[in-house]
Amino acid sequence: MRLDKYVRVALQTSRNDARQVIKNKTIKVNGKIITKNDYFLNDNDSVTYNDKPLIYKKFIYLMMNKPQGYICAKEDKIHKVVIDLIDDYNHNDLIIVGRLDIDTEGLLLLTNDGILCHMLTSPKKDCPKEYYVQTDIEFTDEDILVFKEGVEIYETVDKPYKCKSASLEIDKNDKHNAKITITEGKYHQVKKMCKSVGKTVTYLKRLKVNRLSLDEKLKPGEYKELTEEEIELLK
Ligand code: URA
């Protein structure tokens, strides 16, 4: 592989920036400074950047604890956007996996792996997503059955939609609180499902996507790279 491609991918940066990094004499191959963009790397070559190992990683997987007040977009004229919370990675390449509302917190994934993104978001894949909700009115046992049967919501005022079966696990100590697992991702789906059983959501947080749980060590606005084991939990 050419050195400029290796540096671009490893640093998650643009081609021009990668070439600048090489020009600045910060890249060494097997201990020697290399300034040629088309220098050809062999499999066993060791590459360093500012004397630290530079590892080639094709795919990046980030988990963010999305804070309230941010929208899931790369740019917006009015609101703050989640991508601006990400340093160190090339924003152009990252895909925001699914959407959380501006006032929703919790597990948000960002990746440059389009296939995994499709697996997690395609309606045909039925990927489970678990949310923690707080509502103004207590949930009842009947709500559990309604959710299981498939709640009717409205995609638009004149377009009813019967949701797929969802699980509702009511907190025994406080029935305003529950965990809801859905396998779809309709606009405002959890809020609309709760509305349809007469409750208004006052707080919403995504806890889990597929088998991967939010790392509770992440404060709202923080993010981290997923480990190999965590990536497996998404598949
Ligand atoms: N359902 C909602 O209503 N809002 C979200 O942010 C996610 C799921």
Structure description:
This protein is α+β, with helices and mostly antiparallel strands and 235 residues long. Helix 1 (3-10) packs across helix 2. It is 20% helix and 30% strand. The two termini are 29 Å apart. It has helices at residues 3-10, 15-23, 114-121, 141-149, 189-196, 228-233; strands at residues 27-29, 32-33, 47-49, 52-53, 61-66, 70-71, 80-81, 95-97, 105-111, 129-135, 152-156, 159-162, 167-170, 177-182, 201-209, 212-213, 223-225. Strand 8 and strand 9 (105-111) form a beta hairpin. The protein has six helices and 17 strands. Strands 5, 8, 9, 10, 13, 14, 15, 16 and 17 form a nine-stranded mixed beta sheet that branches. The chain has a four-stranded antiparallel beta sheet with strand order 2-1-3-4, with no helix packed on it. A two-stranded parallel sheet has the order 6-7.
Distance between the termini: 29 Å
Please tell me how large the radius of gyration is: 22 Å
Distinct ligands:
uracil
**Helix and strand succession?**
HHEEEEEEEEEHEHEEEEHEEEH
Name some characteristics of this structure:
single chain; 235 residues; alpha+beta; nine-stranded mixed β-sheet; four-stranded antiparallel β-sheet; binds uracil
Topology:
Elements: H1 3-10, H2 15-23, E1 27-29, E2 32-33, E3 47-49, E4 52-53, E5 61-66, E6 70-71, E7 80-81, E8 95-97, E9 105-111, H3 114-121, E10 129-135, H4 141-149, E11 152-156, E12 159-162, E13 167-170, E14 177-182, H5 189-196, E15 201-209, E16 212-213, E17 223-225, H6 228-233
Parallel strand pairs: 6-7, 9-15
Antiparallel strand pairs: 1-2, 1-3, 3-4, 5-9, 5-17, 8-9, 10-14, 10-15, 11-12, 13-14, 15-16
Bound molecules: uracil.
